[in-house]
Specification:
globular, Rossmann fold, 225 residues, 6 helices, seven-stranded mixed sheet
């Protein structure tokens, strides 16, 4: 009973600390967020800032994102403002949402970032679902992966995001960063271990944060608040 109360108190303090970091991140992101709706479905501002920092500090050139959204737009704006040599391919299951994200980006003006549609399909050997990537051409040397989708899967379907590891493992550059969101949930936290096991021979390291985790290889500077 007492240990349970202690744990809840610790979690409340931790959440308060990250809310403070979120507020700081909103300030630092500044105009990158202009006109964009931040909702409970969006990545937390502190997570967004970590991704933006990684893009710049670790000089990423090929970004693949599972689950399009505000982060896709923020990355596109960062690339345009700083004239970075980087491309973003964001994959989503919703045609309507993907179209909305591309409108925010203005893909005609910013061709370096775009959202593409890949419908969900069941895995052959389980009830899990994952994006149908048969018509999606992934880059050959991916150095930043953001895993925040699929977003509209039935809760009864088990661990859909684990398939991200299988999808990109043969496309990763020698130095890379992989951000897995929602690791406060049991399934996603287990998926981090799956990534670590699959990429063990790449000399990876794992860094846990409040609601996300990094799996990195090669020289990667710290990008978190």
């Amino acid at each position: 009973m007492f240990s349970s109360l202690q744990r809840r108190a610790r979690l409340r303090l931790e959440e308060q600390a990250w809310l403070s970091k979120d507020q700081m991140a909103v300030t630092k992101l500044g105009s990158l967020l202009d006109g964009l709706p931040l909702t409970s479905s969006s990545l937390r501002p502190s997570t967004l800032l970590a991704i933006v920092n990684d893009l710049s500090l670790n000089q990423r050139t090929n970004v693949v994102e599972f689950g399009s959204g505000i982060s896709t737009v923020v990355l596109a704006r960062k690339i345009a403002i700083d004239n970075l040599n980087c491309n973003v391919l964001s994959i989503d299951e919703s045609d309507d949402w993907s179209r909305q994200v591309n409108e925010w980006i203005g893909v005609e003006r910013e061709p370096s970032a775009r959202s593409v549609v890949a419908p969900l399909r069941k895995s052959r050997n389980s009830e899990s679902v994952w994006y149908d990537l048969s018509k999606v051409q992934l880059p050959r040397h991916i150095d930043l992966v953001v895993v925040d989708g699929p977003s509209t899967v039935n809760q009864a379907l088990m661990r859909p995001r684990r398939y991200a590891a299988h999808a990109v493992s043969d496309h990763l550059a020698s130095s890379f960063g992989i951000l897995i969101d929602d690791v406060h949930r049991k399934q996603e936290s287990e998926d981090v271990q799956l990534w670590a096991d699959m990429l063990m021979d790449r000399g990876i390291s794992v860094r846990w944060r409040h609601t996300y985790a990094w799996v990195t290889a090669g020289q990667c500077w710290n990008v978190d608040l």
